[in-house]
Design brief:
Strand content: 15-25%
Strand order of the largest sheet: 2-1-5-4-3
CATH superfamily of the largest domain: Histidine kinase-like ATPase, C-terminal domain
Radius of gyration: 31 Å
CATH class of the largest domain: Alpha Beta
Largest sheet: 5 strands, antiparallel
Shape: elongated
Number of strands: 17
Distance between the termini: 57 Å
Helix content: 40-55%
Structural class: alpha/beta
Number of domains: 4
CATH architecture of the largest domain: 2-Layer Sandwich
Number of helices: 15
């Protein structure tokens, strides 16, 4: 119900409805005769009134405005409709509290913005990963040919830069929740404890690490590398908040149907205006060159894609706590098909026939070169239509997922090849791979490609491919 109140020219309540009594927290008897100044302060009341009771405003009749500010210690957004001098010496005000609606609208706008940036990040990462695959692939081939000769050190720097660029695209994909995950049943205590030695080297000697492991934690179904990335990113964020040293605490416990992983610091804390934007991509309070603004956005993307949520509490001058809540795995949970761990030591090549379909010219030529050099017979196709026209039997299909006209998933289904390796730089549907198929993310190196192909060929083919 709208708040309705009538004031005299001295800003005293003449008449109020029940909603006004609830809004101001007074009975009707207490409000009638009281001044508005007693509720919102004389400074604000005088300023509002001075702009309200002008000849121009009175001539306009009904006025409409939105007031956004703080009242009684909380933020309020009010739609105000007023009619000055609706009766001689009497002024009508109708207030509608739209605070919750505005907050929901802001959340929707923020969600839409994050989704748009996520789609952009995924698209950029897809194209960039194709370029990185070519750069790193041919760089490795060049390094194997020149050995320790002239240019070897310079080539090494190029490959290291490509590796760092690949890590950045993975962050972009994780932020946009478009990273292809390989979920497995994980012990959060084991994952966190396994990182402590590395974190000690990473964050320096001035920060003490305390691991507080909960007992009898259920497993979670998550991607190990991505969960490790979450802990590392939160630890780095904590380190940066403690320039003079302090304590980094990693705590785990069961929280109902979730497993709680909390990373706390004794640092500078986070200002309220910063806290509101903490998970926005590319938002950072660090100096130029000291951060990409993707660390916490990446954490948010990974955890959300894994079915969990991230919460943060902070007090300036005391410290901050980032809490990750991941759903406990169901008793009968299993890892998704296609999430196959890397095979052990294997012979690098073979003599089987492989059908390769990749629309990016540079990546296709690289695949053909590496696989042919390893002894395989390769039929390389630039488009799915070419692959569908191949009539000779093949031992396996290696295909990109995102291609024009026909996706790699559709191509594999139509060819019904028993063994398939999907190569992806980004695909929203890549987590839904057919049972028994394999997945390889761009950018990849020669050794990983050959190991994945050999492992796929050496395992028994699935009886049904769908």
């Amino acid at each position: 119900m709208d708040v309705v109140a009538v004031f005299d020219s001295d800003r005293r309540f003449l008449s109020v409805n029940a909603a006004a009594c609830r809004f101001y927290g007074r009975t009707r008897e207490e409000l009638i005769g009281a001044r508005l100044d007693d509720f919102i302060g004389s400074e604000r009341a005088e300023a509002d009134w001075a702009g309200f009771l002008t000849p121009e405003r009175i001539a306009q009749g009904m006025l409409e405005n939105v007031w956004d500010g703080e009242q009684d210690g909380r933020r309020l957004v009010l739609e105000v409709r007023a009619t000055p001098e609706f009766l001689p010496g009497q002024h009508l005000f109708v207030l509608r509290d739209v605070t919750v609606r505005r907050e929901l609208e802001e959340q929707l706008r923020q969600s839409q913005k994050m989704e748009a940036v996520g789609q952009l990040a995924g698209g950029i990462a897809h194209d960039f990963n194709n370029l990185l695959t070519v750069m790193s692939g041919y760089g490795e081939l060049a390094r194997s040919r020149i050995g320790a000769g002239p240019g070897a050190s310079e080539l090494g720097e190029i490959l290291r830069a490509a590796e760092r660029a690949g890590a950045l695209t993975r962050q972009l994909l994780a932020f946009g929740r478009r990273q292809v995950l390989a979920p497995a049943l994980l012990d959060v205590n084991a994952v966190a404890a396994g990182l402590v030695p590395m974190l000690g080297r990473l964050i320096g000697e001035t920060v003490e690490i305390a691991m507080l492991a909960g007992h009898d934690l259920p497993p979670v179904l998550a991607d190990r590398a991505q969960l490790e990335q979450v802990v590392i990113n939160l630890a780095i964020n904590a380190r940066d908040a403690m320039p003079d040293g302090g304590t980094l605490a990693i705590e785990t416990e069961r929280a109902g149907a979730h497993v709680r992983l909390a990373v706390s610091d004794t640092g500078t804390g986070i200002a309220p205006e910063v806290l509101e934007r903490i998970f926005e991509p590319f938002y950072t309070t660090k100096e130029i060159g000291l951060g990409t603004g993707l660390g916490l956005a990446t954490v948010h993307g990974i955890v959300t894609q894994s079915g969990g949520r991230v919460e943060v509490t902070s007090e300036p001058g005391i410290g901050s706590t980032f809490t990750v809540l991941l759903p406990a795995a169901e008793p009968d949970a299993v890892a998704v098909p296609g999430a196959v761990a890397p095979a052990g030591r294997q012979r690098p090549g073979g003599d089987e026939t492989l059908l390769v379909c990749e629309d990016e010219d540079g990546v296709r030529r690289l695949l053909e070169l590496i696989l042919t050099d390893a002894g395989y017979t390769v039929i390389a196709c630039a488009h799915p239509a070419e692959a569908l026209a191949v009539r000779r039997p093949v031992d396996a299909l290696i295909t990109d997922i995102v291609m024009p006209d026909l996706s790699g998933l559709e191509l594999a289904a139509r060819l019904a090849v028993p063994r398939v390796l999907f190569i992806t730089g980004y695909s929203a549907s890549a987590a839904e791979l057919p049972w028994g198929s394999e997945r390889l993310e761009k950018p990849f190196d020669r050794a990983t490609l050959l190991a994945r192909v050999r492992g796929m060929l050496d395992r028994p083919a699935p009886k049904v491919f769908r």
